[in-house]
Predict the structure.
Amino acid sequence: MKTLLNKLTITSLILFTSVTLNAQEFQGKAYYFSKTPMDLGTWGARMSEAQKKQIAGRLKNRLEKTYVLTFNKEESVYYEDEKLDAISGATDSWGKNFTPGKQYKNVKTNKFIQNQEFYGKQFLVKENLSKIEWEMGTETKQIGKYTCFKATCKRPVFDTSWWTFSWNSTRNNTVEKKVDSIKTEDAASVKAEPIEEEVIMIEIEAWYTPMVPVSQGPGDYWGLPGLILEVNVGNTTLLCSKIVMNPKEKIKIEAPDNGKVVTKKEYKEIITGKMQEMRNNRGRRSNRR
């Protein structure tokens, strides 16, 4: 009975807000902030509280970020609102190489475009929107003045981190080099064997509001019957702090169009290969000394 009432509530909210908003030109701007707790691992146990505080201050720009989502009924653009570092007075130029760039989504045409800059080179990641299999819940909570409903899903970790880099991602390259070192006739048989790639999944929790009836959200999250106001992925929380509906100044939503066109997988391979090359070059210079 309670489940039925919650479903009726969602339906009523969607119908009411849709009728209201359809009567006018529909645009909006949502502001989000993200927080990720600092994890120093085993090193943290050896540090004093003063040292931890100092590191937290230096990493603040990477652990706490603010974003802006501009949207209409079909399109959205999502980007980071960069801030100057409180200590150096500059932006985090190195960290920028491994953070998501300006992102465009069109839920009608199923289009996804994201601009990425990596050490001065511009890339344009173009793909269809990743389909998300949401499991709708009946649990509700209030975020600001908006009634929100819970939804969960599981996604490949790759979908949530393809723009980042870690040395663990170079393991596949190491395996390939070992294969190349085997005798030619043996290598052919090894490469001919099908390799099943393990897809690691991650649990995601989202909260959306039918009071803003657009199938949009921060990052590449979409596909719910209302604007997504909160996303929890791993130890990171992304939360909407303010929504401005139909601002006086008309919003122009444009997809980024500058850069070499690649897929997510191709972009990941490019940055992984470049980081491996940079490490190898440093190793050669060290050996010459």
Confidence is low (pLDDT under 50) at residues 14-24, 86-90, 172-185.
